[in-house]
Amino acid sequence: MEVLTLPTNRSLNGFNEQGISTDKPFIIANTFQTTYHELKQEHLIPVFVKDNQPVISQADFIEMTNEIVSHIYEGEEIMIPNIRVSHPIKGRIPEAKNKPAHLLLEEEKTIYYERMAFVIEVPSISSVINGNRLNLTIGGIKAYNLDNLYSKKGSEEHFKIFIGFQNKVCTNLCISTDGYRGELRVRNTQELMDGILKLLTQYNAQRHIENLDSFQNFILPQREFAHLIGKARMYAFLPKKDKMHLPELQFGDTQLGMVVKDYYNDETFCQNEDGSIDLWRLYNLFTGSNKSSYIDIFLIGV
Length: 302
What we know:
This protein has 302 residues and is of the alpha+beta class. It folds into two domains: 32-213, no CATH class; 218-297, no CATH class. The protein contains eight helices and ten strands. The protein has helices spanning 36-42, 58-72, 189-202, 205-214, 222-235, 240-243, 253-265, 279-289; strands at residues 32-34, 47-48, 53-54, 82-92, 109-129, 132-143, 157-167, 172-186, 219-220, 277-278. The chain has a six-stranded antiparallel β-sheet with strand order 1-4-5-6-7-8. α1 (36-42) packs across α2 (58-72), α2 packs across α3 (189-202) and α7 (253-265) crosses α8. The longest helix has 15 residues, at 58-72. The chain is globular. 31% of the residues are buried.
């Protein structure tokens, strides 16, 4: 594997000016959009309680990923990261400790967000499936609630990274197994860089696109779709001994309900007139429903 050393004097202006990745939310839940500058300049960085050493910050994770993407895809169009956060952790400066909350000035408040997800689009690498344009997209998730912050620096920190294609019709993320690392545990920034680089260099974009394109060749009649949804709803109530022999299913009733609703109503991915549906549209119904998941479990069901 290539050893990549990134500069330590990173600049806030390190992102190119190609525009922000995707103008629609790639995840909804209770998230809202923020900027790299806000993360870097205005948000606190959590620390390990036992030695007061900082964790790898969300801003550093984003910038590190962006620099690796720029290195690997040099010469391609790379857009500014689209960043979404949730679960704010609010505080105040010591001088304002006795003030009523409604009297706090903005400069007296502190904040960071427990959970963050981002995507970086590379629109110059794209394909079209069934009239849907797919752009190569790289992203990651950092959720501090997955770390043991009551420990010391050097304890494992948890990250999720992925590479795949984003469907520009609906901003669904199309991720494959070789483009997903759901539990990257690292102790320092070098291990994080190595993990990101390894995932991106091992990913086979052409093979992924060919697999996605083949989904159109498989059709489910309505009764098979209904059977699939029924079995999926039953999964949560199966005895543990039966679940042991089945692939894990992370979709809940709310998400499955959205799949059924969009099976009838979605303008792009709904059923055919006879009730049948091909796997490409069914896949997008499931990935679309996953956009309502919280950030820290957003990629589990992919």
